[in-house]
Amino acid sequence: GHKYKNFPMVPKVIFGRGSFMQLGEILLPKRRNSDAPFIFLVDDFFHGKDLEQQIPWLFNDQIIFISAEEEPKTAQVDALVAKIKSDFDELPSGVVGIGGGTLLDLAKAVAIMLTNKGSSEQYQGWDLVANRAVYHVGVPTISGTGAEVSRTAVLSGPDKKLGINSDYTTYDQVVLDPNLLKTVPKEQWFYTGMDCFIHCIESLTGTYLNAFSQSYGEKALDLCKEVFLENLSEEESEEKLMMASWHGGMSIAYSQVGVAHAMSYGLSYLLGVKHGIGNCLVFEHLGEFYPKGVALFRKMKAKHGISLPKGICANLSEEDFNIMISVSLSMDALWENALGTNWREKINAEKLKEIYSKI
Ligand code: NAD
Ligand code: ZN
């Protein structure tokens, strides 16, 4: 039977300040020949910044700057793959994603689609990918999502926002260089960091919890508490949040997220609200599901003087609410993890509308 998941982990990881400088030597043995380039997909924040000069490009490698203004889309993945295929006669030696969850997921999806037929939207789901991806390397520049360790690449398609979940999605190599986090703006630092905190709360209070998930989740939660509630040095804070993200991602690999993610997906689908802030907007109103987590969240928010936008759902129509509610309620596994197998008796459309109305 299929009682237990058998899932891949990132096989190689380098950690340390300045480890990005070793990327060139890491890629060298993976270069098939001088006509098989490396493709660097880089958050366009870094265009013209120091990091651009440090990208170890050689021969006909290509650096493509991409805006993280919007979360990745299936059409965007397909267009990138078409461009790479038309620019080069050979399959690339590999793809390197440099940025936050947006760029990390985009690079995973491009690496998969370079070796698989059709459109990326055909692969949104579980274990639909037939062929191994090209070698791919993830370099996070903001911490929290856990996208650097996960076996999913979340994409918005024409009719759904859903990950490409497969054993080929996971990175072959990750570079964890805390120096890359220095320029993250404070609010974004908080929102993406809270994604990690919420992963921990949802995993640790969920019905899917097991000792494997718990061991990672507890470590990640402790690190989040240090980062967001204590007075660490900037260096310590960067390093600990980078590792919290890693452990938080590992924790949900073997369990699931919960109510905040289920509801945040609805907001994101209808209004394009981004993942980190969307989770925060929802989580604030989930005291009845996660009393301790929400109390800690409020403390963290106050300590860092973060004020969330208000009135996001103020002018929505009945139809709009229904769209968000149906997207949210379609995430069976998240609800089951949060509320148990009889979750349909514990949550309904009215209840969700009541919560969305407060946002
Ligand atoms: P992001 O990648 O969307 O980036 C957020 C903002 O921070 C952008 O403006 C970006 O330009 C900026 N930024 C990133 N690094 C920076 C730096 N070092 N200095 C200055 N600015 C920087 O943010 P995110 O929260 O990391 O990612 C969100 C995405 O992650 C969503 O698309 C979500 O679906 C996805 N996600 C994926 C997983 C997974 O397991 N695959 C898990 C959770 C979330
Ligand atoms: Zn998340």
Write the layout of secondary structure elements.
Elements (H helix, E strand, L loop, with lengths): L11 E4 L7 H5 L10 E6 L6 H5 L7 E5 L7 H14 L6 E6 L1 H13 L11 E2 L9 E5 L11 E5 L4 E5 L7 E4 L9 H19 L6 H19 L4 H20 L5 H13 L3 H9 L7 H13 L14 H12 L2 H8 L9 H9 L2
Parallel strand pairs: 1-9, 2-3, 2-4, 4-6, 5-8, 6-9
Antiparallel strand pairs: 7-8
Helix pairs in contact: 3-4, 5-6, 5-7, 5-9, 6-7, 8-9, 8-11, 11-13
The chain binds nicotinamide-adenine-dinucleotide and zinc ion.
Q: Can you describe what's shown?
A:
With 359 residues, this protein is α/β, with parallel strands linked by helices. It has 2 domains: 12-181, 3-Layer(aba) Sandwich (Rossmann fold), CATH 3.40.50.1970; 186-357, Dehydroquinate synthase-like, alpha domain (Up-down Bundle). Helix content is 44%, strand content 12%. The chain contains 13 helices and 9 strands. It has a 6-stranded parallel β-sheet, with helices on one face. A 3-stranded mixed β-sheet has the order 5-8-7. The longest helix is centred in the last third of the chain and has 20 residues, at 234-253. The termini are far apart. The model has no long low-confidence stretch (mean pLDDT 97). The structure holds nicotinamide-adenine-dinucleotide (NAD) and zinc ion. Residues 145, 195, 199, 261, 275 line the site of zinc ion (ZN).
